[in-house]
Amino acid sequence: MTSTLEIPATFDFTKEYVLENDRVKLIPLSEKHLVDLLYYALNESDIWYFSSDKPTDNENMIKYVKSALAMRKEKQGYAFVVWDKEQQKFVGSTRYYRVDVRNKVSAIGYTWYSKSAQGTGVNKNCKYLLFEFLFEKLRFERVEFEADNENQRSIAAILSLGCKQEGVLRKNKIRTDGTRRDSAIFGLLREEWLATAKEKLQAKL
């Protein structure tokens, strides 16, 4: 068996990574963003219908933010808030998680958007920036997604990014209502991103 010399992947969790294009700006999540996010917790709680997290009141949104910051401190995740340049306001959050620097793999998730941002292209712009940074700047080899198998909106969105469905994990998580869910699993490789997925996603922005 032959091996190839690979360029090491890097991820400095202490850095304030800001990802930006003409449409959106991804800013590292901090406690100062609580006020902006609380609006959605109190006024658009149904956007977390399929989520395993329910930051739908003051207390739970505080826990949500603290948990995200703890994940970053432990070098397991890195959360962003999403600034929509058209609306001139924060409209959601997304993050890298299960970050595995040694194997150059990260999941992307914990993603949610306000109702005013859904279906507007915000998600595709965010994912383009996240892919570009992960694959081209940090030299990661794979990104993963997981979605409730009943959440057809989310599944369609992930597939539209160029990801491939790789299977379904049966009853692997408990929903907040106590029922168990099946999780659809998706992946995108660096080689796929560079070969075709980047160009195709760019054309949709």
Write structural notes for this entry:
This protein has five helices and eight strands; from the N terminus they run ββααβββαβαββα. With 205 residues, the protein is an alpha+beta fold. Strands 1-2-3-4-5-6-8-7 form an eight-stranded mixed beta sheet, sandwiched between helices. A hairpin with a 5-residue loop joins strand 7 and strand 8. Helix 1 crosses helix 2 and helix 3 runs antiparallel to helix 5. It is globular, with a radius of gyration of 17 Å.
Provide a concise account of the structure shown.
By secondary structure, the protein is of the alpha+beta class. It contains 5 helices and 8 strands. An 8-stranded mixed β-sheet has the order 1-2-3-4-5-6-8-7, sandwiched between helices.
List the helices and strands and how they pair.
Elements: E1 19-20, E2 24-28, H1 34-43, H2 58-73, E3 77-84, E4 89-100, E5 105-113, H3 122-137, E6 142-148, H4 152-160, E7 164-174, E8 180-189, H5 190-202
Parallel strand pairs: 5-6
Antiparallel strand pairs: 1-2, 2-3, 3-4, 4-5, 6-8, 7-8
Helix pairs in contact: 1-2, 3-5
Major beta-sheet overview: 8 strands, mixed
Globular, elongated, flat, extended or rod-shaped: what is the shape?
A: globular
Q: What structural class do the secondary elements suggest? A: alpha+beta
- List the strand order in the largest sheet: 1-2-3-4-5-6-8-7
